[in-house]
Amino acid sequence: MSVNYGSKRIVVGAHYGLRDWLSQRITGALMALFTIILLAQLVFSRGPIGYDLWAGIFAAQWMKVLTFSVIVALLYHVWVGMRDVWMDYVQPVAIRLVLQVFTIVWLVGCAGWAIQVLWKI
């Protein structure tokens, strides 16, 4: 005789669990590493911290690429988090869709702004 305990669980949602959890950890680690590199450059620099120092730090092409990679990681990190918030707490599908589209448009705008700042387009 087979005995089932508890109610049958109805599974709903997009099932992004492990992938999203891992992407949040990886993007978070990349942002932490970038912060450590940036702080090390500031701590070990000479002279006053002003525009010239900041411009010098971000003048190297490798730093621009690293910074843009971190910005992309940050945008993806935000997207995963906000998408999960919208899916978990906003029940009307139409409102959830509007909020998700707004989030995507806002993040794409932030990416465009970051490109302009880093490469002065």
Automatic annotation (TrEMBL):
Q: In what way does this protein cross or attach to the membrane?
A: Multi-pass membrane protein
- Record-linked Gene3D superfamilies: Fumarate reductase/succinate dehydrogenase, transmembrane subunit (1.20.1300.10)
Q: Which residues bind a ubiquinone?
A: 89
Kindly list the GO CC terms recorded for this protein: plasma membrane
Family annotation (InterPro entries): SQR/QFR_C/D, Succ_DH_anchor, SuccDH_FuR_B_TM-su
Q: Which residues bind heme?
A: 77
* Subcellular location(s) of the protein: Cell inner membrane
The protein's UniProt keywords, in alphabetical order, are:
Cell inner membrane, Cell membrane, Electron transport, Heme, Iron, Membrane, Metal-binding, Transmembrane, Transmembrane helix, Transport, Tricarboxylic acid cycle
Looking at the keywords, is Nucleotide-binding present?
Answer: no
MF (Gene Ontology): electron transfer activity; heme binding; metal ion binding
* Keyword Lyase among record annotations: no
Pathway(s) served: Carbohydrate metabolism; tricarboxylic acid cycle
Q: Which cofactor does it need?
A: heme
Any one Pfam family match given in the protein's UniProt record, by short name? Sdh_cyt
| Entry's transmembrane regions | 26-44, 53-77, 97-119
Its BP terms in the Gene Ontology are: cytochrome complex assembly; tricarboxylic acid cycle
Location (main, coarse):
membrane
- Cofactor comment text: The heme is bound between the two transmembrane subunits.
Q: Which CDD domains match?
A: SQR_TypeC_SdhD (cd03494)
What this chain does, per the record? Answer: Membrane-anchoring subunit of succinate dehydrogenase (SDH).
UniProt name for this protein: Succinate dehydrogenase hydrophobic membrane anchor subunit
Q: Whose protein is this, by species? A: Variovorax boronicumulans
